[in-house]
Design a protein that fits this description.
heterodimer, A: 618 residues, alpha+beta, Aldehyde Ferredoxin Oxidoreductase,  A, domain 1, Aldehyde Ferredoxin Oxidoreductase Protein, subunit A, domain 2, Aldehyde Ferredoxin Oxidoreductase Protein, subunit A, domain 3, 3 domains, 6-stranded mixed sheet, 24 helices, 37% helix, 13% strand, B: 84 residues, mainly beta, Ubiquitin-like (UB roll), 5-stranded mixed sheet, 8% helix, globular
Chain lengths: 618, 84
């Protein structure tokens, strides 16, 4: 079991909540969370629908292990059609909300239609009810969370909310839970706000009592935790330095995209690195990093809790930000820092706080600001557009100003909320948009890490590192080292990472466990918790089925093989320094082999044989 | 000859005192191997996971070779790390 076998369907148009049995036939083929929720999306949502219209659906979904005591088993995902990419969206978050939803007795919630006025959903175990949220509308995530906790009078209620950026139509708005964890990518928060749904508040007191073989489950969980504790990455590296330890690594290998990906190394990288977060400040002697933090059931604890220097220009008159809150993770630090040319760690931390407070994806936000800065440097965007703000590369003031504007949807913040692709198109320079399928790149330049170029180009949710993280192999040597500058052999590597990740994302576990675990560690935990025979091979098959199903949805939405590409800059302009100097990404050498390995034709279409093999929905 | 030695993450404390930005300029013999430098700075070999010369990875089996460094090179070393 492990699944509760119940889902909650919320018809926002009618204001009705209905309990429904989970489709266990689909659970058998797609496991849970990312896979299972996408199966529902494929069944119920027209791929060509307006993502911000009432026909799109928003699914909050857990995996079968979510809420158990398996390490990192606190994950949930938000699935819908993306307004940023028009492709399938699936954004994964940690914190405590997912586990609470499961303990309330629900595997997933499907929101459909649109409420006539703002509402929030309140769940206490089996009871679910919609309530007016007019007073919460127009408030930040942090303020609305506080108000809602006062309303429900229960500090243990967990909440997922959207901020003002989502309400104002920012196309990369996130759903934020537990104040600083987020289902961040692809604009899932924008879809939630489009339905006039401000928040979901959940209290679950039922625990997890439906494990298939409890004794064996406890044994496999214990074994898994031992592997994580004894691994130097998950046992020491991530708790101490967090993901931010990568800043100097990726800079050194010449794959740190800088100033809107026009360069591949950043001279200020060390100032915004994981090591820098440990350095005492001159003003108060305290480091940026206060402590690390863990999500539900996590024994890794990579999360960062940080403060901003109280004398910094961004907060010196704003005591509300003199707090300990979610600090910089690598992807956010890169987008806010090197990609905009800003090396001021306090400015980056302030912008990160604002992204949490008002629910913006910091990757897309930072990358969009970077594109705007390049347009400003070229004289295309001018002071008349920005109201006098000089939007130059390296300007911490401009970066902080931009975050404040997007957070509230004010002035030029509306343009920045469009995302890089639409912004660059609006100003007549689409070639400056560093995006795939409309989604902004994360923190690895594919000229210096060849496999990531293919991973970005073929990601089902647009440019993304979390769909196939070949950086693990190409740079970090996990599970084994491959040459990052070599494109040969990367098609198979990308496919293997994509399929395994889809399986992990469907189990309720964090993908960071895979720095130590393989499916040989994960499958026994799933197998002990769930009915059926869950071997590593079966999980890999499920992962591949999910990948093909997502691809199929995108193809039906009109996103075909012609969009499996990269911006011209990365295919024709060589890196300017370091090991990737004069190198471009060799996507053309990798893509045909990748299609072949996937069982797709030369145009990237899923063949009938592959459809049949995975029994894909019609 | 002079090279730049960079030690990161939990290895940072093994740099000579007074080093800044995780880096120190060190004078070494041209025939020195990477493992000799690793030992000289008391970096446990099992923690010398990611070893780069000018950003290019050097695998474990090549770290005993002499003469792989030239004047002005940057040798950077990390323990096992990951992120994303």
């Amino acid at each position: 079991m492990a699944w509760t076998k119940k889902l909650l369907r919320v018809d926002l148009s009618a204001g009705v909540c209905t309990e429904e049995a989970l489709n266990m036939e689909w659970a058998n083929d797609y496991l849970g969370q990312r896979g299972l929720a996408t199966r529902y999306l494929v069944d119920e949502v027209d791929p060509k629908c307006d993502p911000l219209g009432p026909d799109n659906k928003l699914i909050m979904t857990t995996g079968p292990l979510t809420g158990t005591n398996a390490s990192t088993a606190g994950r949930y995902s938000v699935v819908c059609k993306s307004p940023l990419t028009n492709a399938v969206a699936c954004s994964n978050s940690g914190g405590f909300f997912g586990a609470e939803l499961k303990m309330a007795g629900w595997d997933m919630i499907i929101f459909e239609g649109k409420a006539a006025s703002p509402v929030y959903l309140h769940i206490v175990d089996g009871r679910a009810q919609l309530h007016p949220a007019d007073d919460l509308w127009g408030k930040s995530v942090w303020e609305a969370d506080k108000m809602l906790h006062a309303k429900v009078q229960d500090a243990q209620t967990r909440m997922a909310l959207v901020g003002r950026s989502a309400e104002e139509g920012c196309l990369y708005a996130a759903v934020v839970n537990d104040l600083h964890r987020a289902a961040g990518r692809s604009g899932v928060g924008t879809v939630m706000a489009s339905k006039n749904l401000k928040a979901v508040a959940v209290r679950g007191t039922q625990g997890i009592g439906n494990i298939h073989d409890p004794k064996r489950f406890m044994e496999t969980v214990k074994a898994g935790k031992k592997v994580l504790a004894e691994n130097p990455v998950t046992g020491q590296g991530l708790p101490t330095y967090g993901t931010q330890v990568l800043m100097n690594v990726i800079n050194e290998v010449g794959a740190l995209p800088t100033r809107n990906m026009s360069e591949v190394q950043f001279e200020g990288a060390s100032k915004v690195s994981g090591e820098a977060m440990h350095e005492p400040r001159k003003t108060d002697g305290k480091p940026n990093l206060t402590t690390n933090g863990a999500c539900y059931a996590c024994t890794i604890a990579c999360g960062r809790i940080s403060t901003i220097d109280r004398t910094h220009f961004s907060v010196k008159d704003k005591p509300e930000y003199w707090i300990n809150s979610g600090g910089l993770e690598y992807e956010a630090a890169w987008a806010l820092g090197p990609d905009t040319g800003v090396d001021d760690i306090d400015a980056l931390t302030y912008c990160n706080f604002l992204c949490n407070e008002d629910g913006m994806d910091p990757i897309s936000f930072g990358s969009t600001v970077a594109a705007a800065m390049e347009l400003y440097e070229k004289g295309v965007i001018t002071d008349s557009h920005t109201g006098g703000m000089e939007l130059r590369f390296g300007s911490a003031e401009a970066l902080c100003w931009a975050a404040e504007k997007v957070a509230k949807g004010e002035g030029f913040g509306k343009d920045l909320g469009l995302g890089a692709e639409r912004l660059c198109e609006k100003f007549g320079h689409p070639e400056l948009s560093m995006t795939v399928k409309g989604q902004e790149f994360p923190a690895y330049d594919p000229r210096g890490i060849q496999g990531m170029g293919l991973a970005y180009a073929t990601s089902n949710r647009g440019a993304c590192h979390l769909r196939g993280y070949t950086v693990a192999s190409e740079i970090l040597g996990i599970p084994e080292k491959t040459d990052p500058l070599e494109s040969e052999g990367k098609a198979g590597l990308v496919k293997a990472f994509q399929d395994a990740t889809a399986a992990v994302d469907s189990a309720g576990l964090c993908v960071f466990t895979t720095f130590a675990w393989t499916l040989d560690d994960i499958a026994p935990q799933v197998d002990a918790a769930c009915e059926g025979d869950w071997s590593p091979d079966r999980m890999l098959e499920v992962g591949e089925r999910i990948w093909n199903m997502e691809r199929d949805f995108n193809m039906k939405a009109g996103i075909d093989g012609s969009m499996d590409t990269l911006p011209k800059r990365l295919l024709s302009e060589g890196g300017n320094s370091g090991p990737a100097k004069d190198r471009v990404n060799e996507l053309d050498k990798m893509l045909p082999e990748y299609y072949e390995l996937r069982g797709w034709n030369s145009s990237g279409e899923i063949t009938s044989e592959t459809r049949q093999k995975f029994n894909l929905p019609a | 000859m002079n090279i730049t030695l960079k030690l990161y993450a939990t290895l940072s404390d093994l740099l000579p005192s007074g080093s800044a930005d995780n880096a120190a300029t060190i004078n070494v013999d041209e025939a020195i191997s990477l493992n000799q430098i690793i030992d000289q700075f008391h970096v446990p070999r099992e923690l010398a996971h990611l070893v780069l010369i000018n950003g290019v990875f050097v695998c474990e089996t090549d770290r005993d070779q002499s003469g792989v460094l030239k004047d002005g090179d940057v040798l950077a070393i990390w323990p096992p790390v990951a992120g994303g």
